[in-house]
Amino acid sequence: DASVTQAFLKVNGLRCLVRSHEKQDHGSSVVQKGSDGRLLAVTVFSASNYPSGAGEPGGNKAGVVVVQEVASGEERSLAVINSVAWREPYMEMSHWAGPRMRPAFCELSRQANGSTKRPSARVQALQQMWLLIYCVRPALLKYFNTHDKEMRGKATLEEWISAMRACVIPDEDFPWERLARHPVQP
Asked: Which sequence ranges are marked TM in the entry (predicted)?
């Protein structure tokens, strides 16, 4: 109810309630407006660039809240603006952590965690891959049981890749072929 939201905002000296990280189809959603048309409650999905295939066939859209400084006593305007989905191939994202930034970021991360040795990015990525596979193991078992007509109990590389695409990350561009040797033991 807008009247309840307006009362909450007034008691707390707020103009608008902004919720974050509930996925919205267009990046953001106006939840409530006042009778005068002012925004009272907005949901902003702030996690951009989820990979396509991870529940998002073409990537996802995200919203960003921009707060600009205004002169004292001046009314601050609020608006919701959605943008197109933004996605970079994961191999081209190294410029975000360029050569000068990467060592400084890693050092700060180590200091913050009180750790002197951190696993490499490769090790961390493989751990995340294992976690993804582990989390969908019931679906994988069902997939393999359905597709193992001869009851061999084994899968070929092609069958394993098909299972990963069907159950873990259904994206033809995801490099399961290159990753297959890591979680599989001969």
From this structure: none
